[in-house]
Amino acid sequence: MHGPLHEIGLVEVLQLLGRGARDGTLEVVGPDPTAPRTVRLRGGRVVAVEPDAGDAAVEDALVARHLLSREAARLDVGDEVREAMRRTLAMRAIGMMLHWTRGRFDFAEGQVPVGPVEIAVEAILVALVEGESRRVELATHLADYQLVPTFVAPDRLAVGDRLVLDPLDWRILDAIDGRRGIGGVAALVDEPLEVVGDRVRRLESAAILELAAAPVQDALAARAAIEAGQYDTAVSLLESRVKRTDDDREAWRLLGLAEVGAGRFDRAIRAWEAWQRADPSLAPEAAALIAAARTMLEALRDPRD
Amino acid sequence: MPDGPEAARIHALRRRLGATTAATLANFAWFAARRGAHASALEAAREAVALPGAPRVAWHSLERLVTGRSDGLLLATVLSPADAPTESAMASSLAAAVAAHREGALAVAETCYLAAAPIAALSAAVADGLGVLHEQRQERDAADAAWQRARAAGAPRAAHNQALAAIRRGATGSAREMLATAVRHSPAPDATLWFLAGYAALLEGDATDALRALEVAVALEPDLARAHFTLGLVHDRLGNAAAALDATRRGLLLSPWYLPQVWLLTPIPGGPAVELPAGNDGHGGHRGTDDVLLALGRSLLETGHLGESLAVFDQVLVRDPSQPAALFHRGVVLAKLRRYDEALADWEEVGRSDPDGTLGTLSRRHARSARQLAALFASRSG
Fold it and tell me: How far is the C-alpha of B148 from the C-alpha of B166, rounded, in Å?
């Protein structure tokens, strides 16, 4: 079974394979042809997603989350934490792949050994829909994740109910700098917006954090400027934004867009490369835009140069 | 050491944690160290290792902190419970299914419905949702089977949805029978069933029965826009121009769109229904809205509101420039406004597009008069 993703989406493919309890390997090439993915299925259930949920990726994710140190091997987190992370990464990777509308898939039937994960297709889809619904719902409460979390005053922070915080809560608290919006916090801790949004709201109701309006809605103003064709104004707003908060992925994306509008493809490429670094989960989309900008840059280059 | 406010914040957070677990203290040490509060971090790490069952990362942090290092500290993990699907997770699958269904992601919705199916309390709503989904995919046997299961399990909206499917399949008579039974057996009066019964009656040309049912529907649920719009159509059919105008205006106050065909989905058993417009592939969509607009335009015309009436017919013609009824009636409005040349153009258009129909015949007759009047105006101005 094979075909282009613009004709049959991965949702339908996985659903067919899940219902048919099929064994085999699904190769998926998305918008970035240099980064193919492999999904292995056994009895219609996903048992491996590579490279996103391979051993190296799991280790990288644990290190990035301060749960594992490459220097201190004796401090291994244990199989349960490792496998929970693998499952999270697998779900996240498939969630990303389900959005692909460019590229192709190839399924080869064959025996697949027991894998490191075992996830039913419907569990992936349910989690995906729930996540997206929650993201949209929270966006309205959190001003499109632009609200800026800050610590409450020390006298308020010291009192209140006993706290039970898990590692993600601590990482979120660590990312609070009084300037970064919730979206920026999510990008920094590399967790889904809705997960971070939920945690921030919980920390707010526990009187640890409070939420302030974003000081200047640079992104909104920049978007309006782009729509009005005032690309230099947009560039100036966005440059000042990324100077303050260099992990604001949306600002980097818009900056690339504004530079394209102004015909400066080289600068657009630089902005989108920064976007790629700020949000690795959208790397394929960024890569596709960068490739397009490069093509334009070459097409417009004076042949005498 | 951080400056004043940061130090105060870290101190306050430590106070807030109070007497806590070794893992929490280790994590606080990680946080304080990253904020530059080395002394607070060291103290917390010492407290952590003094507690029974201190995690190894607490010792690791202490080792580093006592040597003056604040980098490379780790967080102590607290493992989440195994994520096997729980009953509440499966219950949320139903909400996820309905969310996906509303977005038109039918494959995702189907998977989510099936994930929710094992819970007995959800089975009725799941079967009803699957009935709608199969119907949308034109899988009629599967839809009927799903609705049979849904009705046997007591799904409150299954009768409505199945009757709507019958209407869309052209079996309006059987839909009316189904709705008459459902209305009789419904545990509480249900405006959506009464509305659909009235709508089906109107489609079958039974305006009197439609009027009766729709009046019950709007009495039960005064905010049901589609019932007001349909009531307007019924009054128009019965020649009650003022009542048609009134009902249509009420509908417009509630919604700009006339969507008579709406599936009802249940995201939470016992909770309110989520409406899913049945789309343009059946008798709904723009045609329904145009019917209402035409009725509204005629009512406005008959009650002497010529300017408003003209605007309404224009609105229909923007979407469908050759809509014969809109052209014909706009011609009438224009003639009443003594804009004979424009009226003539509209009627001639109807005469060309519908030469053998009633409107075509009428239009030709009107056009002759308009030509005479236009000539009269021309000679007067000349």
Answer: 14
Q: What is the ipTM of this complex?
A: 0.73
**Interchain proximity B74–A164, CB inside 8 Å:** no
Task: Indicate the pLDDT class of residue B1, thresholds 50, 70 and 90.
Answer: low
Rounded to a whole number, what is the distance in Å from the CA of A173 to chain B's nearest CA? 8
Under 8 Å CB-to-CB from A249, ≥6 apart: which residues?
A183, A187, A275, A278, A279, A282
Distance, CA of B232 to CA of B234 (rounded, Å)? 5
Q: Among A22-31, B165-174, B278-287, which is the least confidently predicted range?
A: B278-287
Strands A209-212 and A148-151, by their bridges, are: antiparallel
- Answer whether A81 sits within 8 Å of B79, measured CB to CB: yes
* Predicted confidence (pLDDT) per residue in B101-153, tens digit: 887 878 778 877 887 887 888 899 999 999 999 999 999 999 999 999 999 99
Contact B99 A133 (CB under 8 A): yes
| Residues of chain B with C-beta less than 8 angstroms from the C-beta of A11 | 105, 107-108, 111
Q: How close does chain B come to A169, measured CA to CA in Å?
A: 10
CA Rg, chain B, in Å?
34
Please check the confidence at residue B2 and state whether its pLDDT lies above 70.
no
